[in-house]
Design brief:
Layout lengths: L5 E2 L9 H14 L5 E11 L2 H15 L3 E8 L2 E11 L2 H13 L6 E7 L17 H4 L1 E5 L7 E15 L8 E13 L2 E5 L7 E11 L3 E4 L1 E7 L1 E6 L6 E8 H13 L5 H17 L11 E2 L17 H9 L3 E5 L2 E2 L5 E2 L9 H5 L24 H9 L14 E7 H14 L2 E4 L9 E5 L5 E8 L2 E6 L1 H7 L11 E3 L7 E7 L7 E2 H9 L4 H8 L3 E5 L2
Parallel strand pairs: 6-15, 18-26
Antiparallel strand pairs: 1-8, 2-4, 2-5, 3-4, 6-14, 7-8, 7-10, 7-11, 8-9, 9-10, 10-13, 11-12, 13-14, 16-17, 16-27, 19-25, 20-23, 21-22, 22-23, 24-25
Helix pairs in contact: 5-6, 5-7, 6-7, 6-12, 6-13
Length: 538
Amino acid sequence: MTPAPTRLSKDKRTHLRYSLAISLAVALMFGTATAVEVYWAVALSTTDRAKAVEAMAPVERVSGAGSSLLEAEVDNKLYYRVAAGPFPDRAKAIETRDLLRSGGWPDAWILAGLDLTADPPEAPVGAGALPASTASRTITVGLTWISGPALVVGTEGRIRAEGFAPEGADAPAVEAERAIELVAEGDWITVKTSDEDPGTKLAPPVTVEADIGAIWLRESYRVYKGAIKVTRKQGSDSLYVADVLDVEDYLLSVLPAEIGGNSPKEAYKAQAVVARTEALSFTGRHKDMGWDICDSTHCQVFRGLYGQSPNQDIVRAVQETCGEVLFSGSSMVRTASFHSSCGGWTESSEDVWGSRFAHLTNVGCRIDPGQMPDLRDEAILRKYIEEANRKDLCYGGTGYRWKASVEVKAVEAGLARMVSAGTATVSGETAGIGAIRVARRSARGAALELRVPSGTGEYIIKGELNIRSLLGGPTLVKSGVFVILPVSKDGSIDIIGAGYGHGVGMCQDGAKALAKLGKDYKSILSFYYKGGSVVKVY
């Protein structure tokens, strides 16, 4: 840990004592008050009022926003702080702070407070019904690998943790050199700057920022850009941790994780549009944790700065498609799903998920696909899998065709677990298992319902992912498009299949092949998302 911190001696809400006192008086006169959290981007702090007033015009010019003169009493001295704002959301304040830092105020920082007169901000309407976060370009990405009651974060240079202090307490912000530790204690998060420091209690969420804009978590190689948001998990002493950053910076880590570090540039550009659309359409997916999205395959794989690739085509792909998302009609699509390999035909969202989207239909993954075969028929499906088509764009890719084997005992154990978890049902008296059969398939051939006879009863498993999980997991059973072969003498079940992933939306191996054929990213996207269009929203 590092030496004792430089602490602000007054609660930051006292910085606003004049403006808030007036606001409260007005609210009391009219009998109503709505408390809304607001943010300022502070450019400078000085005891010279004339200097502060002189700086207001340049701050307005650089920030493009109105400026405020805020007063603060620190160590019995009156300081005048020139700030842009107030802003109703932190993302806009951060964006403005960055403008100020590049415009001549390198120490610009964020100040939070309460506006008691403002009406609650309303979500923007129109423009294709875009989510509110689109305007700010900032997303909160939950870091699922972090758990437990304590977290050490660090940087090169100064680091700052901000939050709200307990009632009547000082120091809602803590500053230190290089590293701090955050510990969940009761309803608070205690911020420590050394082993000897008893710590400062802050009410979550606590936001941690570094002067250089990069912070490592636990291990020096796990580096993230932006701000780190830390909250407490309700009912426990565990911490929830998230990275708050610009969606364009987020994509630089997502692309190599989702489509690989050695793909054609136009495939990267198609992936950038799709991944940006997913990030913005998923906003608030994990709102119970205070996140927009998570860093796992549940949303999109994100590993921060340490997950970025040196491949400059990825950087250029993100830059050249900046702000572009996928639309269907006049609105941004609710999902722009993608997968590794379709195996020959993509999936319909209605068949596999029960939700119909016009842009997510069955697409033949070849230049001239012809008529889709009846892959619900077991015999036709087996022939389709065994006789691979070299004309398929994803031919030869990882998971285009695959084989798997699972022991009968493992399936029996899996059935017991799934019945207990409620993801499988059972009828009658069970004893061992008989020949497994697929009772219902999608038009692409994906298994949607599995029936397993047992004694005088039967197990029923519904859902493509549940079925794959039972038979060995989604890594072993790479897709729902498979045929179960007769049980072998050694008590194992052999499976052959086609494709890798759920099959909905863009086939990544197919996209790479189209790029190699000279197709640009918009052509690739229109190939897989029928009726879709690319629209620049910022």
